[in-house]
Amino acid sequence: MAHAIRFAKTGGPEVLEWQEVEVGKPGQGQVRLRHTAVGLNYIDTYQRSGLYQMPLPSGLGSEAAGVIEEVGPGVADLKPGDRVAYAGGPLGAYSDARVMPADRLVKLPDGITDQQGAAMMLKGMTAWYLIRRTHEVKPGETILIHAAAGGVGLIVCQWAKHLGATVIGTVGDQEKAALAKRNGCDHPILYKNEDFVAKVNELTRGKKLPIVYDSVGKDTFYKSLDCLAPFGLMASFGQSSGAVGPVDIGILAAKADRLAAREDYRSNLIPIRPIGFIMTCRALETIADGHRADTCG
Question: CA-to-CA distance for 213 and 56, rounded, in angstroms?
C-alpha cells in the first residue's frame, strides 16, 4: 500500500485528496518505483481545474524521480536499486510509490540529484522541442521567450544563447529580470511596465522576429503576433494568464506583410513576369485582335 493525491471532480486545490492506494506488483514491461522527489508543473493546475479535461477520478503529476523496488517480466535494462526519473506518461506522480512502464524511465547519472531529475525533465524536453524541433534556433537569430525566468524559460534562455542567438525575454519584476539575464537572456523586458512589442521593434531595428515562444496566453498572444517578421512563427505552448480562446484566422492575414522587404518584392516579381505577359496578350487578343502582333511582340 502507498498514498497518493487523487481527485474525483475538477476545481481548486480543495478537490485534491490524500488517499491510501494499492500499488500492486509490476506486470510485463513494468517496474514498481518508490518516489524520492516529485516535480510540480503548471500543467498540473490545468488538469486539476478542468481546463484540460481527463477521465475522473484521476491521479495528478507527470514527473518524478525515485528508486526501483521491483521489476516485472521483460525488463532487462533496469534493476532494483536503480535511480531513475521520468516525465510524461500516465498521471500519478503525486504519490509515495507507483507501478510505471519501464520504457518511460531513464537512469539518473551520479552527478544529477533526485530533486534535479524530478524538476527538469519535462521542462527540458519542452525547451528541446521548442528550439530544436518547432523552430530550430540558429546562430545570429533573435528570439522572444515569454516568462523567461520560469522553468522552461530559463532553459530556453541558456540553450538559445549557447546556440548563438540573441535572446529577448519578458518577465514580471526586477528580480526575475536579473535571474533571466544571469541565464542567457540578453534583453529582459518587464512586460507589465513596458510595451514589449515596441521594445522588440527597437531592438531589431524594425525587422522583428522569426519566432516567438509564448506560454502566457491571453495577456500576450495578440501582441506576440505583432512581434513577428514576415513568415515568422508563433509557438503558443501555455496559457498561464488564461485561455486565448477562439482565434479569428483573418487576423493573421491582416497582420501579414510578406512583401515588406524590397528583396522579397523583387524576387516575387521574377516568376510572375511571364504569367502577367501572357495574361495581357490574351486580353488584348479579345479587344484588339488586329493589333495583336504589334502590341505583344
Answer: 32
Q: Which residue has the cell 478537490?
A: 15
> pLDDT by residue for the chain (297 residues), tens digit each?
899 999 999 999 999 999 999 999 999 999 999 999 999 988 899 999 998 888 999 999 999 999 999 999 999 999 999 999 999 878 999 999 999 999 999 999 999 999 999 999 989 999 999 999 999 999 999 999 999 999 999 999 999 999 999 999 999 999 999 999 999 999 999 998 999 999 999 999 999 999 999 999 888 999 999 999 988 999 999 888 887 878 777 777 776 655 455 565 555 555 544 444 444 444 444 434 444 444 343
The Cα-based distances of 278 to 216, 265, 281, 287 in angstroms read 50, 21, 5, 15
User: 168, 199, 159: which is closest to 186 by C-alpha?
Assistant: 168
**Residues 45, 93: Cα–Cα separation, whole Å:** 14
Instruction: Give the Cα-Cα-Cα angle 287, 291, 292 (nearest 5 degrees).
Output: 80
Cα-based distances in Å from 78 to 31, 36, 88 = 9, 17, 19
* Strand extents, DSSP E, the chain: 2-7, 17-21, 30-38, 58-59, 63-71, 83-87, 97-101, 106-107, 142-145, 166-171, 187-190, 209-214, 228-236
Whole-model pTM: value is 0.77
Whether residue 244 contacts residue 221, with contact meaning beta carbons closer than 8 Å, is answered with: yes
